Amino acid sequence: ADTEDEEEDDPRAFNMPALVVPLSSHGRLTGFAYVQVRVRASDGENVWDMQENLHFALDALVRAGYREPLSTENGETLDTDHARDVWREVLQEIYGANSIDRIEIRASDTRLLRR
């Protein structure tokens, strides 16, 4: 079977609403990334409860992106590894220490500001 189809059917995984993340370089706003994120809950977590609290999680993830730069140093794109690490911490604060199995960044569309 196709692994991506299996992942789509995974009852432990859910998609976040699209995240808008500011991109910056040396403290200056360079643009925004529009990011599709899929979260897989750890075994034993109540995925329905997690999804019911999605709006809190979304708010926290967006705020984390404004608090700490999630872009590459040149500000041209999302630093996906760093974003994943930061977002995992944020989600674990909301849902619990071992609540998140993995975070996938499915797609990222970047709009840079004109310079």
Cα gyration radius (Å): 15 Å
Strand content: 25-35%
Range of helix content: 25-40%
**Overall geometric form:** elongated
Secondary structural class: alpha+beta
**Could you report the average pLDDT, rounded to the nearest whole number?**
92
H/E series: HEEEHHHE
Note the main sheet: 4 strands, antiparallel
Give the N-terminus to C-terminus distance in angstroms: 47 Å
Unreliable spans: none
Please provide a written account of the structure.
This protein is of the alpha+beta class and 115 residues long. Helix content is 37%, strand content 32%. It has four helices and four strands, in the order αβββαααβ. The protein has helices spanning 3-8, 47-52, 54-67, 80-95, and strands at residues 13-15, 19-25, 28-41, 100-112. Strands 1, 2, 3 and 4 form a four-stranded antiparallel sheet that branches. α3 (54-67) packs across α4 (80-95). It is elongated, with a radius of gyration of 15 Å. The mean pLDDT is 92.
Question: Could you provide a short overview of the structure?
Answer:
The chain has 115 residues and is of the alpha+beta class.
